[in-house]
Amino acid sequence: MTQDRKVEVVKKETPFQGYFRVDRYHLRHSQFQGGMGNVVSREIFERGHAAGIIPYDPVRDEVVLIEQFRPGAFAAGDPDPWMIEVVAGIVDEGETPEDVARRESVEEAGVILDNLHPIGRFYMTPGGSSESITLFVGQCDASKAGGIHGLDEEGEDIRVFTEPFDTAHRMVLNNRINNAMTAMAVLLLASCRETLRKEWA
Predict the structure, then answer these.
(1) In what residue span(s) does the Nudix hydrolase domain sit (predicted)?
(2) Is the pTM above the cut of 0.85?
(3) How does pLDDT run across 44-67, given as a tens digit for each residue?
(4) Looking at the structure, do residues 92 and 155 belong to the same domain, yes or no?
(5) Of 12, 29, 101, 188, whose CB count within 10 A is highest?
């Protein structure tokens, strides 16, 4: 934050604490035309930070994707709340995003990653959530990917499949992939794909 930009927290409450947490902030902040604004109250969904990984086979030019039911899409009224996604997981205390990338690739997709290439860190819904997601491309052997994965104790039922990169790219462009994190991962992979194929193949 630059020196002339300030945020003053007047009060902070936690009205809900469950698997996730909701904090209520009463705050005011610097205004573009100068001075401080009025106090505003905002609820923030606090779910921690996450890592997302698109496993990529540079030899076969294929990506590994997953599909699973998402209650948020169901609650939004989506007629098909099974989302096509990249592998992802929450960063627990003491872990790095890289740790999560490797762990979740095994748990959710059954693939072991070799090299990891970071492609960005993003806030997905900063108007109402503190969550950030660090995205990676992970080198893998896509010939070994497939089947149903996930942890029973977490209620996961995850279908794993592979697609040629060009097909996955078209799926983003025609909105067949409508999960924002996954779309970003595919589009960012497009920007570095040829370089990674030379380095990893």
Answers:
(1) 46-185
(2) yes
(3) 999 889 999 999 999 999 999 999
(4) yes
(5) 101
